[in-house]
Amino acid sequence: PDVIIEAQFDDNDAEHGQDHLQDVLTDDIKKLSLDTGEKGKAAGVHRTKQDDGPKVNDPRLLPDEFLQRTAKVVYILEKKHSRAATGFIKLLADRNSELFKRCAMFSPVDHRVPRVYVPLADCPPDFVTKPEAYSQMLFICRIVDWKEDSNFASGQLCKSLGQAGEIEPESEGILTEYGVDFSDFSPEVLECLPQNLPWVISPGELAKRRDLR
Questions:
Q1: Model-level pTM?
Q2: Domain limits of the chain?
Q3: Block means of pLDDT (10 residues each) for the chain, length 213 residues?
Q4: 62-90 as b/e: b if 16+ CB within 10 A
């Protein structure tokens, strides 16, 4: 079977130059050739002289299917996520750390969203003394930062939604995550609607419109 050789390219490789990367690839290809040769002997596979093709020492001459292309993210053009998530809060595991006195852990329901450190000041006043009372309470958290040297993002609790499993809190959480504005219409918007009720479509409008009712 075809084998794909993956080469990791980082800043150290850039310092040594492209020749260093090619040398690494060449060594990997040689090792792969030796391993497959030994496996062939163990399985009783015999090669004829016609099977032995030319040896390729330059990775640039190899077919594309033997190489794994790699890339590096250099810039974020547009943030598609609202940075808001629905989840639960809990105390940190290490009670002796300084972080325990300042932050709580927010665990999103959507596992694609990272866990978030949130300030204890954003949590309910009795959360530290009675964390079990909020174990099934849904909260909305908004991510504000994520440092490169941290496994967890930093965020702020926006509001408490209510008990998990109930329709209204769950629905509000989904709408907030996707950035849907579900607030009430303003009086200016409501004034644009017909005021004389009951309202009916006029024959003139029906004549020039397609009826999709």
A1: 0.55
A2: 84-178
A3: 53 54 68 57 50 63 84 89 91 89 93 93 92 93 91 93 90 90 90 88 91 86
A4: eeeeeeeeeeeeeeeeeeeeebbbbbbbe
